Amino acid sequence: MRLLWLGFLLLAAAPVPSPSEADVAAVIDRWHAAAADADEERYFAFFTPDAVFLGTDGTERWTRDEFRTYAHPYFAKGKAWSFRAHGRHVSFAPDGRVAWFDEALATPNLGPCRGSGVLLLQGGQWRIAQYNLSVPIPNGLMNEVKALIEKDEKAKPARTPVVGGRDSR
Q1: Residue 39 belongs to domain spanning
Q2: The whole model's pTM is what?
């Protein structure tokens, strides 16, 4: 019994390998490549089971499975999306098991974008727990964009409050 406890304590106290910015960046790059290749299985394998994807529209808050349902037709046609990072910052929690990042993206359809997210080290593999895709708006254009958003919001039916998953209109 003592040997069992000793083994448990040694495993619990085992150091986590030093986190590597390059390792996290490689995971994110492979994830983006899976989308560009329209490889649905590989793309969604990068997510944790309880992951959340936040899209550019204010209504787009999906669980991994909801996002997969939304994205499936794109992958099925062999044309998902193509994001290429041209700048990225990665940070780590002190225990080395959580990483967060932000990245500047070039996209053919949306133009300049920004992505940010959180990865968890699970079973020795980095998995995406949250990703947030946004379109940065220059400050000088904010009043015009704000007016367009307000006009769009007024044209839509009232929202159902968000409790979990995606809200509905």
Answers
A1: 18-155
A2: 0.80
